Amino acid sequence: MRTLITYCTLFPRRTAYVLIALLAAGIAEGLSLTALLPLLTIAVGDTGNSDIGQRIVQVLQNMGIEPTIEAMLLIIVGGMILKSLILLIAHRQVGYTVAHVATSLRLEFIGALLTSRWQYYLRQPMGSLTNSVATEANRAADGFEHAAVVLALSVQVLVYGTVAMFISWEATLISFLIGIVMLRALHQLIRITRRAGAKQTHLLRELLTYLSDILGSVKSLKAMARDNVADAILRDQTKQLEKATRREVMSREALTALQEPIHATLMAVGLYLAVIIWGLSMSSVMVTAFLLIRILNLLNKIQRRYQHLIAQESAYWALRTAIDAARAAAERTAGTRQPTLQKGISLRHIYFDYGVKSIFQDLNLEIPVRSFTTVSGTSGVGKSTLLDLLCALADPKSGEILIDGVSLREIDPRDWRHMIGYVSQETVLLHDTIISNILVGAPTLGYADAERALRQAGAWDFVNALPDGLQTVVGERGGLLSGGQRQRIAIARALAHQPLFLLLDEPTSALDPESERIVCETLQRLARSLTIVAVSHQPALINAADHIFTLSKGKAERVHRFLGTEDDAEASSVPDAEKAISTSR
Ligand SMILES: Nc1ncnc2c1ncn2[C@@H]1O[C@H](COP(=O)(O)OP(=O)(O)OP(=O)(O)O)[C@@H](O)[C@H]1O
């Protein structure tokens, strides 16, 4: 019931349209049925025994309609056609609304997720997110459809009930009482459906979470013939899902199967009361019986539809919880100062931790503009975290990051990020063309920007040599390209919108020496007009930088280039910076 009310309050206008249309349809149907009585009375020549029959005949005569069989039949058929037309409009409205519900839930979830804090986003399993967008949004929208039908059927029950009341209030009352008893008696099956639906929602999430994890590392598992472990787990989860689905099917079918015999028994009792106990006229009994069958049928239908709604409701609530959690983790949008990058970036007394794990303690770092800075350090020391702080994906626990002297806290993170080009450590490309991968999220850019960015990243020659050039589809996660090619496409993506601040996390780790040389030269050239910070272990890249820092014990240490004797310099085939770094360690 809570879901039913929630749907109505979430989409009040659309629910109201649907209900008005269905109410009109119910009235049309009710009106055409009342014409049955005079039709029957005329057919059996029994007008004298039926009050209601006489009254309707009189009303029709007042309207200038002679109550002939033909006229009655026309009224019934006309009413039914009108009803069908109204139902068509109503059902179309329901269909459109169902699509709208799915779309708005999806957009709400995606919107909440994309504006959530990076640390929250990181903790979400990919499979669970895709399941929410695909499966849960659809199931929740199906739930809305069932809710709308439950409401519409309830309206129809009211219409029928009202019509039936005029004919025999006793029979109507009895049939409602009987209907309520039936609904209560079969409610246990609804409970089973609710549990089975919730189980399916939970299992679908687990299954898709596991599946997407496995698909992410399927190559290494396959190479070691260990994919059968994944197979076994996926099989087990799929079987459990089937079990839950069977339970839902069983309870649904049991409800339908039990409704029929109970219905027939109750009808027999109803007829007995009407004919034998109350001694109603034959025509009234026939119409009453007809109306009672309709009422009980409608009540049965309501219960069946309600059961469908209950089977889907857990998907809606799971999605709602996910949306609310993402909203609660929304990243700050406060900050009104417009960022500039004319002077430099300063990190002052930065403290940062991931819960119990402390990463930075009193970190201080100066990054001058139009320069190339590299940061190195042992694995896990916090190099990527430093980049996260610089692009405001993480906030320091204390201390300040100053952009041209303005605290990053006073700047809207999105305004700041518009000025940033970022190359992540793991190069994951979209399953799309090279040009789409480069221009993604930047609709104002075009072919010329992509070509310039590819040239800057030293990737133009290999892309141009491909049969489809920029239109080459790179495959799942860019799998049809080599690691080095992927990395250069990622660098081109970061350069496409001509950022002022370029952040690179191990940008040359997958490159051959020649490609690395090209990228280093590119970065040195770019550093004349923009500010670059690269995290790297690669001697060539470190050596190409203007400023070199190492991270150690939560602090940054400036590494000065080794200024040895001429002999030392000549002997140095290992990059100077690397020597200096190893000396400083
Ligand atoms: N979201 C997170 N939640 C908790 N701990 C994290 C999170 N991200 C990173 N860490 C931990 O913080 C430490 C620093 O991680 P970070 O990725 O910044 O290191 P790194 O120096 O870039 O390492 P590598 O060179 O191996 O990439 C690591 O020990 C890591 O396990």
From TrEMBL:
Residues 345-578 form the ABC transporter domain. Residues 18-311 form the ABC transmembrane type-1 domain. The chain crosses the membrane at residues 16-40, 71-90, 147-167, 173-190, 269-293. Gene3D superfamilies: ABC transporter type 1, transmembrane domain (1.20.1560.10), P-loop containing nucleotide triphosphate hydrolases (3.40.50.300). Keywords: ATP-binding, Cell membrane, Membrane, Nucleotide-binding, Transmembrane, Transmembrane helix. This is ABC transporter ATP-binding protein. One of its GO terms (molecular function) is ABC-type transporter activity. PROSITE patterns: ABC_TM1F, ABC_TRANSPORTER_1, ABC_TRANSPORTER_2. GO terms for cellular component: plasma membrane. It is a multi-pass membrane protein. It holds the Pfam family ABC_tran. Its main location: membrane. It is found in: Cell membrane.
